[in-house]
Structure formats: C-alpha cells, structure tokens
UniProtKB/TrEMBL annotation:
GO terms for molecular function: oxidoreductase activity, acting on the CH-OH group of donors, NAD or NADP as acceptor. Keywords: Oxidoreductase. PROSITE patterns: ADH_SHORT. This is Short-chain dehydrogenase/reductase SDR. Signal peptide: none annotated. The keyword Oxidoreductase applies. Belongs to the short-chain dehydrogenases/reductases (SDR) family. It comes from Desulfurispirillum indicum (strain ATCC BAA-1389 / DSM 22839 / S5). Gene3D superfamilies: NAD(P)-binding Rossmann-like Domain.
C-alpha cells in the first residue's frame, strides 16, 4: 500500500475532523501527499502540520466552503503548481441537520444539506475530474451513507442527498468508463464522530443517545476501508462499499444489547 501511494496526491474535503481527518491520518501513514481543506483553515492547518511532522510527508491546507461554486473554482485554480495534479479525490464534506418530520423541517437546514452534500460534491468533482482524464489516471471516492439506501423518519432530505450521491457516483462511473479513472461510493452506517452533535445543533446529550449501548463504527474504520479501496491494482474498481457496525442491519434496525425490552 505504501509503495502504491508514495508520491500520490490525495485531496480530502471536510478534512478537519471526523472521517475526513481519519482518512488524512490513514493516507499519511502510507506515504501520500495530502491536500486538505475545510471551511475554516485553523483546524485543518494544524492537522496538516501534525501529519507532516509525524510522517515527513508533504501537505497543503486551505480553506474551502464547497457550497460556494466560485470559491471552489478559484481555490482549485490558485493551488500551487505542485498541488494541481490530484490523483485521488475523497469527497467527504457533508452533514445532516435536524431530525424533524418532513412537514416540520427547517428550510435553512435543507438548503445547507443539499448545498453541501450534493452541490458541493458536484462543484469539486467537476473541477478536478478533467485534469484526471487528461493525465489518464485518477480515483474519486465519494463518502455516501447507509442513509442513501434506507430512508428513515425525520431524515427525508438528508437521506435524499445521500441517495443522490449514490446515483451521481454511478452516473459518473458510466461517463468515465472509457477512461482509466475509478469511481467509488463508500457508504458508512452509524459512525461515532461529531456527526450527531452537528445534526442536533450542538446538543451533546441528545447526540450521545444515538450511540448508546452499541459499539458503532469509528472514523478510523471508514478510513481504513477508503485506504483499501484506493490501493487496489489499476485494473480493479470497487464500485461501492456498504459498511456498518455489527449491531446495525439497516438505518433503524439496530440491536442495543445494553437495553432491556
């Protein structure tokens, strides 16, 4: 794996924490050059500095709000020349907001989820893929979700955005079938990150209930899977991976052995 990734440039969106940061750590440990971005520069720059110090790899961090189409275009065009040839793109930036019934949903939450999870992924991918085609090499890994397969109450819009990611990933793969590029949808189930804290607008107590009495996935589990996907031989394309903890069979089909009744 390390030999395969040596000298490869991996771009990760939403890299400051959670699955994005875990992917950065996993790929850094295997020799990749890391191009890391998130909405605010501070945390992602600290992560980049840490990984450079720990692994001796090259890193470049920059602020990017994937929802802003012009900002995406400008930021990627203004990258230093040595960072413009991206080998692997991990579209990780995304979020869920709220858990209200559809008829009670917050329109601002809906806009933010659609703009980040769908439109942001499109803006970044559209800007990077042509260069991959020109160089005859590249891999796009979209971080989807179990929610893209199984909708659940109170999350219709979030689930719809992740279903869109799955469909867009399939369509992109078809459009690139005559190129050496590979396209993957990596779909985690319940993963213990700040995901639920963000969903519940900072309510840590409510967020903690999501993972109570189970052993959920950790961000590192998803990152290790992303690494495996990215390091297959060039003739091998893993189209999609659905990964859950052992206690989860579908979005709301979860066994909590610590609870009675």
């Amino acid at each position: 794996m390390k030999q395969y990734l040596q000298g490869k440039t991996v771009c990760i969106t939403g890299a400051s924490d959670g699955i994005g940061a875990a992917c950065a750590r996993e790929f850094a440990a295997h020799g990749a050059r890391l191009l890391l971005c998130s909405r605010t520069l501070g945390n992602v720059q600290r992560l980049a500095d840490e990984l450079t110090s720990q692994y001796g790899i090259s890193t470049h961090a920059f602020a990017l709000d994937v929802r802003q189409r012009q900002q995406v275009s400008d930021a990627l065009e203004k990258l230093p020349p040595q960072w413009r040839a991206i080998d692997i793109l991990i579209n990780n930036a995304g979020l869920a907001l709220g858990l209200e019934a559809f008829q009670e949903g917050d329109l601002d939450d809906w806009d933010q989820m659609i703009d980040t999870n769908v439109k942001g992924l499109l803006y970044v991918t559209r800007k990077i893929v042509p260069g991959m085609i020109e160089r005859g090499s590249g891999h796009i890994i979209n971080i989807g979700s179990l929610a893209g397969r199984y909708a659940y109450p109170g999350a219709a819009v979030y689930c719809a955005t992740k279903a869109a990611v799955r469909t867009l990933t399939d369509g992109l793969r078809m459009d690139l079938v005559d190129t050496p590029l590979r396209v993957t949808d990596l779909q985690p189930g319940m993963t213990e990150t700040n995901f639920s804290k963000v969903r519940f607008h900072g309510d840590e107590e409510r967020a903690g209930q999501v993972y109570r009495d189970i052993d959920p996935l950790q961000a590192s589990d998803v990152a290790e899977t992303a690494l495996f996907i990215a390091t297959r031989p060039p003739h091998v394309q893993i189209q999609e991976v659905l990964i859950t903890c052992t206690s989860q069979a579908a979005s709301l089909v979860v066994h909590r052995p610590g609870r009675s009744g």
